[in-house]
Amino acid sequence: MSASATLIPAAGGKSFTGFTKLCKGLAVILFLAHILVQLFPSAAGYLALIPARTIPFAWNLVTAGYIEQTIPGVIVSIVGLLLFGKVLEPLWGAKELLKFIFIVNLSTSACVFVTTIILYYITQEESYLYTPLSGFYGVLSGLLLGIKQILPDQELNLLVLKISAKWMPSIVAFLSVAVSFILKESMAYLPTILFGIYVSWIYLRYFQKRLEVGLRGDPSDEFSFSSFFPGFLRPILDPIASIFHKLFCGRSARSEGTGHALDGSQFPGSGSIEANRRRERGQRALEQRLAEKLAAVRSAEVTAPPPQQQQQLENDASDKV
């Protein structure tokens, strides 16, 4: 069986083992923050993102991402963090993963803050200013985007469905928008999820350091903005995306994202080469993990004698007696 057959092992495999220290530490923070808000509800007024109070309480741009106000929310956040982090940290390293989580969390909160202020000035609804906003969903969406980048063709087992990892961020965004029309209370989570996906893509596309090639970002076509949408929409989206690309990230793309070396020479097809290298690293990490599990199973089989041999030993012992 190929190591890329599934990202999440089937039941009986060790899906919930092998978590990294960083992710376990962040999971403890999420749990303790949830307990704190439950025991002292007034703490949400200082730790969650309340746009009317953000100017004096600027730290809530950071703390809001770690405050889960509901039990299902903290469960989903902890499980998602542990599972996604177990895949990404061996490939990125603990330092880069922590940096990614901090940047995505802060950027997402800042975008949500600006959006609520704009909505208030448009609608004059004070609820936009005083509703506590919090949750780890922006970072979870970003981690899912990291898996899309590294293992785009990896199949995720979701109940009875098998879906490629490259489509998971798009599916999450679509479902979030659809559910927000049905359940009005879920509307508060929509900006966090959408901005989490977008700012994660901006960081991974243009700014993440790639030491193996001495460049920043990921210029490959497999990670372009139009890759989040079905193929028939890409001819329409590519011209629009190129406009925003030149407006916001043109300088970064010209100097680093187009496959230029430090001396100014160009690597032909560097985007595709880097995409292949990412997939190879992901494949090697999964194969190593599978090999370790197979070695553990074989060592257990060698330690315990076969049932027939064990029965024969028992019979011999009884005959001697």
Give me the secondary-structure topology.
Elements: H1 21-39, H2 44-47, H3 60-63, H4 71-92, H5 94-123, H6 127-130, H7 137-150, E1 155-158, E2 161-164, H8 168-182, H9 190-207, E3 209-210, E4 215-216, H10 234-257, H11 270-303, H12 307-320
Antiparallel strand pairs: 1-2, 3-4
Helix pairs in contact: 1-4, 4-5, 4-7, 5-7, 5-9, 7-9, 8-9
What attributes characterize this protein structure?
single chain; 321 residues; mainly alpha; two-stranded antiparallel ribbon; 4 strands; disordered N terminus
Written account of the structure:
The longest helix is centred in the C-terminal third of the chain and has 34 residues, at 270-303. α1 (21-39) runs antiparallel to α4 (71-92), α5 (94-123) packs across α9 (190-207) and α8 packs antiparallel against α9 (190-207). It contains twelve helices and four strands. The termini are far apart. A hairpin with a 2-residue loop joins β1 (155-158) and β2. A two-stranded antiparallel sheet has the order 1-2. Strands 3-4 form a two-stranded antiparallel sheet. Helix content is 63%, strand content 4%. It has helices at 21-39, 44-47, 60-63, 71-92, 94-123, 127-130, 137-150, 168-182, 190-207, 234-257, 270-303, 307-320, and strands spanning 155-158, 161-164, 209-210, 215-216. With 321 residues, it is mainly α.
